[in-house]
Task: structure prediction
Amino acid sequence: SSNQFHGPIPEELGELISLLLLNLSHNSLNGQIPSSLGKLAELESLDLSSNKLEGRIPEQLTNLTFLSVLNLSHNELVDHIPEGKQFSTFSNDSYIGNSGLCGLPLTKKCHEEEPGAPPSQFDEEDDSTTLFEWKFALAGYGCGIVLGLSLGYIAFITGKPWWLVKKVEKYQQKLIGRCNQKHKKRKTQKPNQRS
Result:
């Protein structure tokens, strides 16, 4: 941080695969963020804030699954913010001061409609479908929790769920019977092999 670096970020930084933290903030770095930074598989913190970086955020950065801190604020970055993996966990603060950025978590949408153009039905359907799927998923989790807690309570109050104990015991007896049969066969085969 604040090293008086200037010029583009070297692509060769992507070869430092054991790097855990990269802080190049408060410099005069320009150009684009190298896609080779996506190779830094162990990287936990990336701070490129307060530079003059421009262009898009490389999609390859979504490969950084250990990344817990990201700060790209106060640059000249544009276009959509990559989605997925760790990128869905970062807040607005990671991107402040980049007026050309759009997409989640920012409130600015990437596909701005022309004035007077009717809203796209595809986008509305897509958003409602996603919300619809989440409602079912949450309802399923809720029902599963209620059912699990209810069965656990019943099993705790009544002692043991006898029907389950009987099934497990039957299966256990079958398994022991099979093992005994195999063991007897081996014993009878061994004397035959010696003769």
Summary: Residues 128 and 134 are 10 Å apart (CA to CA). The first strand starts at residue 6 and ends at 8. The chain has a mean pLDDT of 79.
